[in-house]
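Hi support team,

I submitted a single chain yesterday and got back a structure, but I'm not sure I'm reading the token output correctly. Could someone confirm the output below corresponds to the sequence I sent? I've pasted both exactly as they appear in my results page.

Thanks,
R.
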Amino acid sequence: MVYNEFNMQICFITPSLEKGGMERVLCELANFGIKLGYSISILCILPSRKVAYYLDPKVEVIEPTYHYANNIIFKFKSLIYLIKHLNDIKPYTVLSFSETFNPMAISAGFLTQTPIFISDRSNPLKEVSRFKDLLKRSLYPQAQGLISQTSFAENIFRQKDFNKNIRTIPNPLRTTDYSDSLDSHLSKKVILSMGRLVKSKNFDQLIRIFSRIENNDWKLWILGGGPERGMLENLIAKLNLEGKVTLKGEVEDPDFYFSKASIFAFTSLSEGFPNALSEAMAFPLACISFDCNAGPSDIIEDMKNGFLIPLDNEDLYLNRLKQLIDSEDLRTKLATEAIKNRQKFSPDNSSKKYFEFITTLK
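Hi R., thanks for writing in. Yes, this is the structure output for that exact sequence:
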């Protein structure tokens, strides 16, 4: 590990530090930057939002004093806010998160002559308005560099000529104490899934797949909250799965639930980088996932450390899930390989790559 000898000032730009995968990663990076000896500032664009994750007390968090509004005036105020604080902080380099505000950050960097790196964390095939697409095509090439979360995303960004300096860096795992005892949970008859209850997470298909497994004494637990909860509750009732499928809601300690399960089932239709799947692999659980267009294939090697299923093949998903249910030896075999992802996506390993990239200026 290379430590910074010059107390270099680094700034992150983010919408907020509320609960979410992007926000968790940013806090991990900020804490790691302090360990390396950098001075870290975080510029939040949305005012008065809760900080959901631990931050080293040495990290400076700056929020605007004006109120949020979904209009051009708020965007103009935000640009002025970024310009002012970049001029005050005078960072050596800046990393901006969120495709929504990356064009604004690049503009502020141009006006203050500050090097701006960006991280685009969206599904690279996600449809956006013509205006947003034009902003990306016009401004992304002006950034010092672009960080993608997956190799699939990097290929799409290169095809669109978003930037010449692109690096794929996976999300670091959250800091946690993992269990090294596979026997402690891989015999338990619980299938776990986790994510926001929204259409793209495809939990309704997971519930229908589970309903097709006959004469099983397993349970399916789904962690997370969201607008589709009512629809999923109705589906559970319609399929007579009360007591078998449980929506646990938002939880503070997902590791507790990981320790009560032996299989992690993931059915997302699209992803940026699936933190939940990455964490489940590292725990480790025996994992099965649809191969949606970004993320799972960077985490799972099919048949080696998990099962990766083509999106449109529900029957194969069902058959692989049955294999996992029927064989503790298979679950142990896959989890033994999956545990190696702890090193691959370790906080120090991934975070170091972020800092090496954003401190290397053209």
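A quick pointer for reading it: The chain has 14 helices and 13 strands. Let us know if anything else looks off.

Best,
Support desk
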